[in-house]
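Hi support team,

I submitted a single chain yesterday and got back a structure, but I'm not sure I'm reading the token output correctly. Could someone confirm the output below corresponds to the sequence I sent? I've pasted both exactly as they appear in my results page.

Thanks,
R.
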Amino acid sequence: MTLSLASLITRIPRIFDQDRARDALALVPDAPAEVRDLVAGAAACAPYLLSLLEKESAWLGQAVEDPAKAVQAVIDGAAALPYSEVGDGLRRGKRRLALMTALCDLGGAWSLEQVTGALTDYADAACGAALRAGLAPQIARGKLPGMSEDDLADAGGMVVLAMGKMGARELNYSSDIDLICLFDETRFEVDDFHAARTAFVRATRAMSGTLSDLTGAGYVFRTDLRLRPDPAVTPVCMAMEAAERYYESLGRTWERAAYIKARPCAGDLDAGARFIKTLRPFIWRRHLDFAAIQDAHDMRLAIREHKGLGGPITLPGHNMKLGRGGIREIEFFTQTRQLIAGGRDPELRGRGTCANLEILAQKNWIPTEVAQSLTDHYRAHRTVEHRLQMVRDAQTHDLPQSKEGFARLAAMMDLEVPDLEADLHRRLSDVHETTEGFFAGTQSKAKATGEAHRFDMQVLDRWHSYPAFRSERGAEIFERLKPDLLARLAHAAKPDEALLAFDGFLERLPAGVQLFSLLNANPQLADLLIDVVSTSPALAKHLSRNAAVFDAVIGGDFFSDWPGEAGLREALSTVLAQEPSYEAQLDGTRRWAREWHFRIGVHLLRGLTNAETAGLQYADLARAVLGALWPVVTDEFATRYGPSPGRGAVLLGMGSLGAGRLNATSDLDLLVIYDPLDQDVSEGKRSLPSRTYYARLTQAMITAMTAPMSQGKLYEIDMRLRPSGNQGPVATSLASFESYQKTQAWVWEHLALTRASVVAGPEALGADVDLMCAQVLALSSPQEKVVAEVADMRDRIAASKAVAGPWDAKIGPGRLQDIELFAQSGALIAGRAAHRILDGIEAALAKGLIDDAGAQTLRRAYDACWQLQCAGKLLSPDALDTGALGQAGAAFLARALGCDTLDEVEAQMEQKCTAAAAVITAALAGPEGVA
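Hi R., thanks for writing in. Yes, this is the structure output for that exact sequence:
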């Protein structure tokens, strides 16, 4: 053991008590010299330590050889105490623990974490011993229905939750302990509930008395049970169900913050862990909870006012815990950031202050230098706090009022008084400036609008009649935002147009507190919001109903590289694994997918990507959702009807999904192909014939994708491309599908097959389906027959589907559907798949249907149509009405097609589509039509 504080004796001549030092030395005559110096100096500074030494010197003489081992023996001994000896035994253990931790702390042998960890471990052991001692008489007297002495191992379903510093394993030297006591009411019959509760209440009071009563042997820990729900009217031990109902309906932000550190420490630890898990939605909000900042700020101000600690930093008497720049400031800063983002990121749900600061920095929620600075200040503050409490075992956080007191503290900190004072003032000021800037500085700085633009006051005046302003708090936050928002709107190309677009967004917004709080804490988002609502009515409507998608901009990888289908599938699978139920998984998928969908749209809207890239990303997202959700649906279905018969089923993507190119409003064309092998029925609680099994499984998947749950729908599903169309079964066996495709399928079905690809399901079965599709396409398809069929189909489409106008990118001669149909015919004639339309055009070229010039014409037309389709669907899910587009929307549409004006776009589209239609008409007319 290396302990060195010899300088302590010479540093404190005015408070050094020679008699106390001499008494201390006399108690450890055989200790090593450095230990004797430390003991003498510590006793001279702290009368309490001398009182401990007088009682535990013999133990100390043996323990100094290995302090860590000695302290662990004290902790282990507490858990093994006989019930009759718990009171005195725990007090004796606490004396030994307090003496050794103080010496190891003062001598620099232990870090802050070792000191607080030892104190916390002993508190855990003491709570467990005191709880068992309190429960034993209740069980012995038959007061706890159905319980025997064997049930003491898990306290009969009762658990003690450690809160605050004890929960975080950060107990200070003279800390009280905050506990919440609960019991699992499900372990008792309904008629026995009241008797059980009474017994647990008595045991809790006995436990608290054992720990906190002051006897001739001292006390163990001062115990506070007031953090439980509504402590003025509730018993000291509550049923878990009652506590859960309270938090769900009445829980406040400070209670959410308190539960960040909550930890089962004694009794039924498993029941305690389950209870905390049930509170996860209460503690950790799914969205980024920036409203918690104001709540925390209000709590800080209330504490300051209540304690009279709101003044400037003056060292004498300054409260190191609650005063400006104190410990609580750092804890509030850390916990509030956790509350904001912990619902989305489980790694931010830790209990320890320093560890969480490090993680917050790693996750880019705070700058690394801020985390390092606050961590350093936190450790220094806690060290000062411990020194103050060692003097007389007082639960104090106040710096000394006298010069002698500062001299004592300086000596215990191994510093000169001026150096200590300078260090304290620097640290307190730095903490205050950092944290105050976070809490009070998040209010957006209003930009003066001056006379730059005068908005229509009738529009502004009606805002407070909208649902988002019904909450007084929401209206208050918006008032702080309003000057800045108006200034940003005034800088738009057409301010009045931008205002009306923003007005429409506010009108549809169902609630405002969370979004307004987010904008208040992140003013830079206002530009993005105004840009979105001014440009894209469709995206603005989506955003008003799903404002939480802004979370992805702040807390996700919004501007990082695209992860691809595999990365997305892995990320979603991680999200699904964390959800507690099937319904939660479906809602979680919707929430997750919506954020990524929003990301794709914003990137396209702001020119960070183009239509080609956006189409691929929309498809990646859809295929990732299908790939991750299909196993979840099959597993849930299997709980009722048994595992999938045979080799299971795959989802075969058709159309644009199979081709890997979607737009913002695309539905998904799917087929379900299964292979039951020779298994006729499933093996489950309710077995089903294999055909019925897969039909119902398909319906379950459709429901999972399309049901309008609390988070809306995922995608619309279209299964009309299955064999026999709407008349056929929704799921088809592999053998039937193969037979149908080879002997009965129409040409249009083979055309569709050129873009098919497996998107989800067992890999082996998927490979067989892909191989079978390739074999079907490789069968001889006479060119004359295909050309004739496609020409006939083209005529029927033209007769049945009217062109919506010059801005219809899909329907009409030379447009998307027309070029896609022709490209598929080229692929079918070539006898191979062509997921990309450009590959189908190349196949048509190779087969002589078109020449090089014709292929180039089709490529240019298809690219232009796709750009128009992708950009147009982002602006509106309906037929594009350019007359209704604002200036920002029109500029985006023109920019997406590489033009300056919409007139130029229209002329370009007409020219390219007319040329493409002529190429297709000539090709389908026969060889003589080829240029």
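A quick pointer for reading it: Residues 449 and 487 are 5 Å apart (CA to CA). Let us know if anything else looks off.

Best,
Support desk
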